[in-house]
Amino acid sequence: MEIQQLVRELKIKNDSKIVLLVADGLGGLPLEPGGPTELEAAKTPNLDALAKIGTLGNSIPILPGITPGSGPGHLGLFGYDPLKFLIGRGALEATGVGFNLGPKDVAVRCNFVTLDAAGNITDRRAGRIPSEESAPLAIKLREIKISGIEIFVEPVKEHRFCVIFRGEGLGGSVADTDPQKTGVPPLDPHAHNAESQKTAEIAKQFVAQAEKLLKGQPKANGLTLRGFAKAPALPSYEDVYGLKAAAIAVYPMYKGLAQLVGMDLVGKPTTLAEEIDVLAKAWNDYDFFFVHFKYTDSRGEDGNFAEKAKMIEQFDAVVPRVMALNPTVLAVTGDHSTPAKMKGHSWHAVPVLIAGQNVRTDACQSFGETECLKGGLGQFQAMYLMPLLLAHADRLGKFGA
Ligand code: ZN
């Protein structure tokens, strides 16, 4: 039996509160062999105090050696096998801006681009056009009409927007039109399979009409389409875990991921401090809280070790406010590693800390990669974190007599 089916059958409802604090890309690497990682270099008195009374370990986001995107990374943390439940970027983006994707929908992430007179791309991000300028342009694209298809256009941020095509017989498997370089025109939408042929044709018509509407725009006079995707059918947190779950995040993609598993998006925080304000305010209304912090990953991707450590310190600083709410179980982890040294995501195992009720305290004295190797949780696949949290919260019954 699959783990989710097992959990569905064993789950128990009670009044416990579970908090999952996620610092995106938390795991790191030392700059020199034997040196500290970002997490170990950061001053984290609050997390270290929790490490002393909690239990630590390492989670493997997908499988050993596999570097995940944030989508599969989070699905794993949420307890969904990331190799079984695949989510396209378009579906994530659309959900992230609050669009409720239906079964007839194909969602696409779009970039405004700058084209020269010959139709070649001169800037793949339209000069990072500010949202105030790009949003009205995205909204203007709502004028586009294609017979038999409903079209939704949603501004996202800066040069990004998303389009949802709704209609019968639309497959979600169409290649990106971004050629990944300048000096060439955007590619034509190309279907990967027969079911997606119609989608590719519609996308082509959409681009042609959009370019007419954008003609004369100084920055955003063209577009590329990426990440075509239909909505995945994910069982909900309520169904699998019996949890009423809240998601507290700043960035659209993470809100989207949470919504796809049936979490409610609460508040409209723009900073970590505001996220904790939202957490406190929603405390009585939910059983489970997912709180997402983005900047650890961003600074890791920048390759900035010191700044990533600083972001971890900011993350550490809100821990007392979370503990003041008296969660039954608190987990602190990341969705993958983003070592500054590698300037990108990596496959390395991610530090995990669980504190609260029923914890078998281990000998760990601080929260860091090396210390986590000695932790009582050992090394496990991220998709088993949720059963562990439920168990610590007395929310799982016994298997068998
Ligand atoms: Zn991530």
Describe this structure in words.
With 401 residues, this protein is an alpha/beta fold. The protein folds into two domains: 3-84 and 235-392, Alkaline Phosphatase, subunit A, CATH 3.40.720.10; 92-229, Alpha-Beta Plaits, CATH 3.30.70. The protein is 32% helix and 19% strand. It contains 15 helices and 13 strands. The protein has helices at 3-10, 38-41, 45-53, 70-77, 89-96, 131-140, 197-214, 237-241, 252-260, 272-282, 295-302, 305-317, 319-323, 369-372, 385-392; strands at residues 18-23, 55-60, 105-115, 121-123, 150-157, 160-166, 222-229, 245-248, 264-265, 288-293, 329-333, 350-356, 378-381. The strands form two sheets. It has an eight-stranded mixed beta sheet with strand order 9-8-10-1-11-12-2-13, sandwiched between helices. Strands 3, 4, 5, 6 and 7 form a five-stranded antiparallel beta sheet that branches. Helix 11 (295-302) runs antiparallel to helix 12. 51% of the residues are buried. The model has no long low-confidence stretch (mean pLDDT 96). The structure holds zinc ion.
Features:
about 400 residues; 15 helices; eight-stranded mixed β-sheet; 2 domains; alpha/beta; about 30% helix; Alkaline Phosphatase, subunit A; binds zinc ion; Alpha-Beta Plaits
String of helices and strands: HEHHEHHEEHEEHEHEHEHEHHHEEHEH
Give Rg in angstroms.
22 Å
Bound molecule types:
zinc ion
How many helices in DSSP terms? 15
Q: Main sheet?
A: 8 strands, mixed
Distance from first to last alpha carbon: 17 Å
